[in-house]
Amino acid sequence: MAMTDVSAEKLDIGRVFQLAIEIGKRRFGRLAILWAIAMAGVIALGVLLVLVAGGTMLTDILAGGRPSLATVQKIWPIALVGIVIIAIFTAVIQAASISVAIGDIAGRTTTLEEDLKLGLRKAWPLLAVSFLFSIALVFGFALLIVPGIMIGLAFSQAIQATVVEKIGIMQAFDRSRFLTRNNRWRLLGLWAVVILAYMVLSIVLGALTGGLAMRESGAAAGIGVFASNIIESLVASIAGYCLQGAAYAELRRIKDGAGAADLGEVFD
User: Fold this and answer.
1) Which domain holds residue 107?
2) Residues 6+ apart with CB under 8 A from 63
3) Does some domain include residue 245?
4) Domain count within the chain
5) pLDDT tens string for the chain (268 positions)?
6) What is the end-to-end Cα distance of the chain in Å, rounded?
7) Does residue 64 lie in a domain region?
């Protein structure tokens, strides 16, 4: 894909939020289902670990404690394999969720089966990009905080580009650098607002569960914390995918002059 700026326009943070809200309204159900599938995989691994470790592990967790060292030594081989499987599973769901968000902007309506098939097709390149992105971040933050942040912003669209565009792994990083050029400070502002909103949500839910913990004890308090974590995870997941899709779509519009139809290339 030729990479030539077609506009000097800057990213409008308000427009990104507006677009993300519109995506969330229309695609909340599908994104929630994909989130639930991802959570089911995590819960299945947890159940397996509990079965291997015995009943004491579940009791410890519900009581707000940690598994004993003996329990950890017993389950770690299964946990290690499970983490690898969950990483692949998560990549499938991540690719599917990003395609749902961007597909909504493109005016594409897909079935859950189509979303998951696309996720399976994009999972391996997405894993590779995520791995390289993580290495780049570690390298950047090893230098100083500012280089780490700038590297993160420069490559922040690599995952979306991998899912949507028919390009290679290294090309995805080049695309991200191009799409984010001259807009990285605005992206930093966007994600600063998102992080602040997430912190407020966490504080509110923490206050609610903290009050429950003061009134209740043992399993009841543990269940309250679990429910709070579920709500926080659901909201953060859906909001995150909607914002990723909206930011990518806006950067494509600004840099490539891409319209809604151009964003649907992943489905062709």
Assistant:
1) 13-123+183-267
2) 218, 219, 222
3) yes
4) 1
5) 555 555 678 899 999 999 999 999 999 999 999 999 998 888 887 777 767 666 565 566 555 556 666 666 667 777 788 788 888 989 999 999 999 999 998 888 889 999 999 999 999 999 999 999 999 999 888 888 888 899 999 999 999 999 998 899 999 999 999 999 999 999 999 999 999 998 888 888 777 766 555 555 555 556 767 777 888 889 999 999 999 999 999 999 998 886 666 676 666 6
6) 16
7) yes
